[in-house]
Each structure stands twice: as structure tokens, then as C-alpha cells.
Amino acid sequence: MRAEELRDELDAAAARVPDGRTSIAGMVEARRRRTSVAMWLGALAVVTAVGGALVFGPRGAEPLPAASVPVPVPTSEQAGTAGRLVIPGVRAPIAVVGIGELAVHDPQTGDRAITPVTRLNGATAATSAVAVGPWVVVATGGGPGSRAFAIDSHDPSGPPRSLGPAVTAVASATPGLVWLADADGRAREVTLGGLTAADSVQLPGSLVGVTDYGLLLQTPAGAVVFDPSSALVRWSQPGGTALAARERSVAWCRDPCGQVEVSEIGGVTRDLAPSPGSTGSYGAPAAFSPDGRWLAVTRGRIVVVHDLTASMPPSVLSGGGSGARTFTWTGDWLVFSGGSALEIARAPSFSALRYVDAGTPVRAVVALDAGTDQGGPTVVAGGPFVGDGWFVRAGVHTIDTVTDVCFGVFGPPYSECMPTEGDGVEARLIGSGPTLTVVGIVRDRRIAQVRVIRSETTDPVQLEMADVVRVPGSYRVFGWRVATPDGVAHVDGLAADGQFIAGTDVPLG
Amino acid sequence: MDGPEALCAVEGEALRRALTVAFGDETLASRCTAAAFARARRRWRAVSSLPDPMVWIDVTAVRYAHRRLARLERRPAAERTIDDPLAALSSHARVAVVLHAHRGRSVDDIAEALATSRPEAETLLRDSYRSLGVGDVLIEEDTVPYAG
Predict the structure, then answer these.
(1) Which pLDDT tens digit goes with each residue over A61-106?
(2) Where do the DSSP E strands lie in A383-432?
(3) Of the candidates A6, A73, A276, which has its C-beta nearest B77's C-beta?
């Protein structure tokens, strides 16, 4: 495009702006009159106040009226979705953790489901939430009594899976796992079943985020990246305030936090452009976008979005509502909250805000993994058990009949499918590296439990009945995470009395 | 120009439309345009002595807009239209390009309006034009100071 063409387009855009309801000259004149009246009233008020003080003496002042509450802005969607959360091109549901309830918004249709969840009654302003597939892991942040639990967003009315004491939940660098930190500063990396993936570790500070090199912590001395496996500090910034982490990057600021800096661990540190017009200190929450290009940071009630690929000033999202901000990224959309409202803005301009009803007073908002494909199989169950972190869905090729069951490690894609007709037990190796998992289907209804025995050990790894997940059609599925890819796994299906019914071998190499 | 009223009658609507393109909010644009002209009227003796009073009014109006947004009193009210030529730009970049390409303001004026440095404003403009695929624009050396 040539500069002249751009000027022509801007001229045309300005010409398309509708005429104002009041002329600018009229508005200026009105402002002049208001200013004059205000000056007279001010002078009168001063005289009255001085006189009143002299006559009546000192009195307690009346509190100032509360700030006006923003009214939801009508959206341009079709009738029926006005005021609802509709995000073009986004399939991942948005979960809103409220006080005593969970709201799940479908950004494709604007539908929302609000379900009472008793365990959320104690949700505080420090509530943190992490999405693991269709599950929402919540830590209510209420001090020593706070616990973490996982809620199945497909069935929030079901009993949440307890994950133990925790005040903070942060997504792990390993898909399907979550880092939890309790009020005493002990942290553990757990599966959705609450099983620890490694020994718990005492942290020297509070948990903020996760990098490829370890956990980003806020300690009394500053921001540090702490390797939980070696207990070594991999990066530190004395006096710094930790804001957010992603892969090798750490966002932080130095007291009084008027400017954000981003450090590559083992690399350079750079100052981000100041945000004109906004004041106050940067602080939590903060989050990098999924692609790492953008960094959203709160500054009081303002959300500032920095472009990490350029030095231009950031976008300043003021938003409405009086509540503390919490936000989540879904693709290139930023969804943030204020009070009981959600607002959305899209990269790169972040200029088009829409204000919709969150359905509940927002304590935390999180974008779930897209668990459903239009026209494809539907997620019907997810772990957890020894190999949990993966999710299972049943492929329904007709309206009534389940013809196969498909598996995916840690969610989509569900590339491995097994037919519902066949031997009593069928198993297959899927995934790779840390996600290498034996998954299988139990077809024989007499089988009550599944046992896995590795060929190189005498100790059986046994999957209890409770760990086997039921899917439609009276079938059950199981999974077992392979720690080391050697030997052969003997998968046995046992009856309730322990009698062997059916089995199969899966080479692990 | 005879006075602030005459200047407003001639230039007010153009500035309001430009701010609407920049911020996507007609109400915000109208209010900030009016506020800038009202301020110019109060300070007319100083403003009228500038080489171009409209530069001062443009910068003041943009500053009012940013201040108003920062005070949480307003937010952009509606999504922009599909044929928005600046849809690919951040909010500050939009303002910079509108001031530069549409209103003909200098880099120094844009820096003042955005409360940033001249190098930052220049980088912002260059990045913005690159994003828009505009390759032949001149970012001139213009050092007329802002008199706010």
C-alpha cells in the first residue's frame, strides 16, 4: 500500500463517521457554561462551608458517593446472544469460578451453564484456577484451610476430585500436571487424581509461575526461578517482583513497579515500553499469551497489554466493574473480568472491548482446552489414575451406537481408536517421552479390575477398579503411564475374585 | 483566524471524526474534542501565539482521551467496523497513524500526545506503517515544540 492510499482510506473512514448529535461548538459552549456555574457554586460552597463551620463546629463528613457502575454495552451479535460471551473463531469454553458456583460459557453459541458447586463457597479473591483439558483445577486461596480440587466442566454438579491442601494452583510445564503450593510453602506436582509426579519440595517463597527451568517464586529477597529437582536457584532478581513466567521468559518489575521488564533466563533483560496515561504499580495477575507475543499485566484496575516483539507503547484496557481483575488468554483473545462482568479484546489492536455478564461474581476465569469437535467424537471421560492426565472420548458414528473409543494423551488429538467389538481387553501404546502411556478398552463385563505387570519386575502395577473409567455402552477404559520404555507390559483383566479372564501384551520399547 | 469559536467551527468536526477513527468511540471523541477546544479558549492568548493552534488542540484532545480512558470513566463502546483501515494496529499505534497520516502532525507532536519520547514515537510509527504495508511514507524531521 502507498502512503497516499492510506491517507485516502483514513479520509474515507473519517467521512463515514456519523454526524454528531451536538455540534462541537455547542459542546464547548455548554462546557463553558458549566465551568462558570461550577466556579460560582464552588465559591458559594466555600463561603457556606466556612460559615457553617463557624456556626456548627466540626462534624463528620458524609462518605463520597460510590463510583457509577458501568452498564453492559449491547453487543452486535444476533438476537439471543446479546450480553453473552461470543468469541468469533474460539471453541474453547471459558470457565468462570465464582463464589459457590461455576459458570461455563460456550464462546461459539453464547450459551452458558451455571452450576452450584459447594466446594467453591470459600472462593476468595486469591482464588487460582488452571485448566487441564476439560477439568478446572481450583485452589480457593483461603490460607491454611484452603484446598485444591478438580471440577469436570462437563459435569460440574459431580463431586470434585480432591487434590489436597493448596493455596495456589499453577499449570505445570508437563501437560496434564498441576503444581500446587500449600500455605506452609510446600509444593507438589500432581495429576488430576492427586497423585504426586515427584517428591514435594519446600519452596523459599510463594509460587507465581512455571518456567522451563523451574518455578518462578516471590521471595522476601526478590524474584527467583527455583529448580525443584535440585533445589538450586536458576535465576534471581534481587528486589524484583515476580509477575509471570512462560518457557524461558520471566516478567518482573522493580519496586515501585512502574515499569515491567522481561528476562530470558540465561539471556538478556529488556524494559518494556511505559504505558502512557496509566499510573500505579504493576502487579498480579499477569500472563503471557499462548504464543508468547503478548504480556498482560494488571495495574490497579487497568489491564496493560505489552507487545513483546516491538517497542511500541502498550495497549491500555480500562474496562468496567470494580472487582479485582483476573484474566485468561484463549488464542489471541484476552478475556478479563471486573466484578461480575467479562470483557474481551483481541490482538493486535485490543481496542474492541465487549462487556458481557459473567453469570457469577468472578473469582477466577480460565479458558478450557477445546474438548469437543463439531461433528466429531465427544469427550465422555477423563482420567485420572496412575497414567492420568489423558482423556478419553467415545466415537459415536451413529446416533445410538458407540462403535469405537478413542484416546489422546493429555487431551486432543484423540488419534488412537479401538473398536468396541473384540477381545475382553485390548491395549495399545500411545504418546512418547513423558507422555508414553498404555491405554486400553475393557469389553468383557465380568472384568472388575485391570492389572499391569512389567516383564522386568516382580512387583505388579495394579490399576484398581476405581481408576478405570466408564464410557457409554458399558465399556470401560484405562491408562497406565510408562515411566521407562523398556520390556513388555502384561495387561490382565481380572474378575472380582481375582481370577484372570482376559489379557494382552504391549511391547514398551 | 479570528478566535477560538471560529477555529472550532471550522476544525472541530474534523478533529472529532479523526479521534473517532483513532479511538473507535464517538462519545469519547466528541467529549475530548470539546474539552480541548474549551481549554484552548481559556488559554487562547498563549495558544493563539503558536504557529498552528490546531496542533496544540489535537495533542490536548488525545491527552484528554487517554486520561479519560485511564480514569475508567469510559471505554471503547463498540466494535469497529470491518472496513477499519487500522484494524491491525494497537490502540496507541492507531492514534499515532491518525495523527501523522490523517492530521499531518509531527513526530514530536505525536510523542507529546502519547506521553512518550520522540524515538519511541518514531519507532511506533515505523512499526505501524510496516504492519500496514505502507513503504513509501516519510517520517519527517519536525521539531516544532509542543506548547502545552
Answers:
(1) 333 223 222 233 333 333 344 578 888 888 888 999 998 899 999 8
(2) 391-396, 402-408, 416-419, 425-430
(3) A73
- In angstroms, what CA-CA distances link A371 with A154, A367, A431, B115? 10, 11, 18, 45
**Cross-strand bridge partners of residue A475:** A471
pTM: 0.54
DSSP run (H or E) holding B26: helix B26-42
Cβ–Cβ gap A277/B84 under 8 Å: no
Contacts of A348 in chain B (CB under 8 A): 88-90, 131
In contact, B99 and B62? CB cutoff 8 Å: yes
Residue A297 carries which side chain, given as an amino acid letter?
V
Q: Are A424 and A447 in contact (CB under 8 A)?
A: yes
Cβ contact, residue pair A278, B70, below 8 Å: yes
Rg (CA), chain B: 15
Pairwise CB contact (< 8 Å): A312 & B128 = yes
- Interface predicted TM-score (ipTM) of this complex, two decimals: 0.86
| Residue partners of A72: CB distance under 8 A and separation at least 6 | A83, A341, A355, A356, A357
Interchain CB contact of A65 with B (< 8 Å): no
Residue B139 Cα, gap to closest chain A Cα (Å) = 11
A66 in reach of chain B (CB within 8 A): no
| Cα angle: A324, vertex A327, A328; to 5 degrees | 165
Kindly determine whether residue B14 and residue A11, on different chains, have CB atoms separated by under 8 Å: no
